[in-house]
Amino acid sequence: MLEPQPAEAVVLEDDTRAVMAVLPASQRPELRALQANRGHALRLAIEVDLQDLYIDSRAYS
After folding, report:
1. Paired strand residues for 8
2. Exposed end of the chain (fewer CB within 10 Å): N or C?
3. Which phi and psi angles does 15 have, rounded to 5°?
4. Each residue of 34-43: pLDDT tens digit?
């Protein structure tokens, strides 16, 4: 059985969409490899942009 590892969520974006990935905390996303695989560039989303993408439901309770 695998041992649990600390993880972190990473949000990547291009000009039209965003995707969230969960990675082991010890690894960083390899943006060049992702670009080669997906055929277009992705960048790390900045926190200000995330406020428009993901609404925290706790803010409305």
Report:
1. 23
2. N
3. -75, -10
4. 888 888 888 9
